[in-house]
Write a structure and sequence with these properties.
single chain, mainly alpha
């Protein structure tokens, strides 16, 4: 053999795992023990504590039962509202050439942002327009409309065209 050629040898394994079916150590249990723990907040990609929100939901007796995703969703909503509020308040404090966000900046942010204002008043923020009751939808669909293309929310579907039946 010359110096350019190298031969790799694999040492033989001294211990071979035995296959057992009766409660012996298995590779799965060892892998689970070595696996690092991660919080529900980090798994969801959130900064707000999901476990704390879960505990408060349970202690608050808001419902007898709720799903496992409910505290995750609620923590995400709280994080979004906080982010939106602080973002707008930060912009207001920069305009007034101050480095700290004061309570008056937060109050102004709530008044300026239409979405945050609706949330505080108890209304649900919706896309443009209002919901039309079914009875009015059917009655008004017989008229010809010249509509412009309206922007819709992604979760809203276009209402299907319905034929009006003559009621005797």
């Amino acid at each position: 053999m010359s110096g350019a050629e190298e031969v790799c040898t694999v040492p033989e394994q001294e211990w071979a795992p035995e296959v057992t079916c009766s409660g012996g150590p298995s590779e799965g249990s060892e892998a689970k023990a070595k696996k690092s723990r991660s919080s529900r907040s980090s798994r969801a990609g959130l900064l707000f504590p999901v476990s704390r929100v879960d505990r408060q939901l349970r202690r608050g007796r808001f419902a007898e039962r709720f799903g496992a995703r409910a505290p995750v969703y609620l923590a995400a909503v709280l994080q979004w509202v906080t982010h939106k509020t602080m973002d707008v308040a930060g912009k207001i404090s920069k305009k007034s050439k101050q480095q700290r966000i004061s309570p008056s900046h937060l109050q102004t942010a709530m008044q300026k942002s239409s979405v945050l204002k609706q949330l505080l008043q108890g209304g649900v923020p919706r896309c443009r327009g209002r919901a039309v009751p079914k009875s009015q939808r059917v009655a008004s669909s017989s008229k010809k409309k010249t509509t412009k293309s309206k922007k819709r929310c992604p979760w809203q579907r276009a209402a299907p065209a319905r034929a009006t039946a003559a009621v005797k």
